[in-house]
């Protein structure tokens, strides 16, 4: 058996164990949707971070190759 809590329309008290229960289904669904969106954004940020790191590695590799090419053309610094 449940008794509605007067101050909060979406809360009820279970009379057998005195627990307070939230009956706001829309609020729960909104919370779950927000949580899923936050997880998705975090995954997108992680993916973007990985892409940036890969680009930095590629640029470092390219710079090293260019240095090698320059050294091959002018081994005496000329």
Q: Overall mean pLDDT score?
A: 93
**Poorly predicted spans:** none
What number of domains? 1
Task: Find the count of extended strands (DSSP E, 2+ residues).
Answer: 3
In which order are the strands of the major sheet placed? Answer: 1-2-3
Radius of gyration: 30 Å
Ends apart, CA distance between termini: 92 Å
- Sheet with most strands: 3 strands, antiparallel
Q: What fraction of residues sit in β-strands? A: 5-15%
Can you count the helices? 1
Helix content: 55-70%
Return the structural class: alpha+beta
> What string gives the helices and strands in order?
EEEH
Overall spatial form:
rod-shaped
Please provide a brief summary of the model.
With 78 residues, this protein is an alpha+beta fold. The chain has one helix at residues 25-73; strands spanning 2-4, 11-14, 20-22.
What would you note in describing this structure?
The chain has 78 residues and is an alpha+beta fold. It has one domain. The chain is 63% helix and 13% strand. The chain contains one helix and three strands. Strands 1-2-3 form a three-stranded antiparallel sheet, with no helix packed on it. A hairpin with a 5-residue loop joins strand 2 and strand 3. The radius of gyration is 30 Å and the shape is rod-shaped.
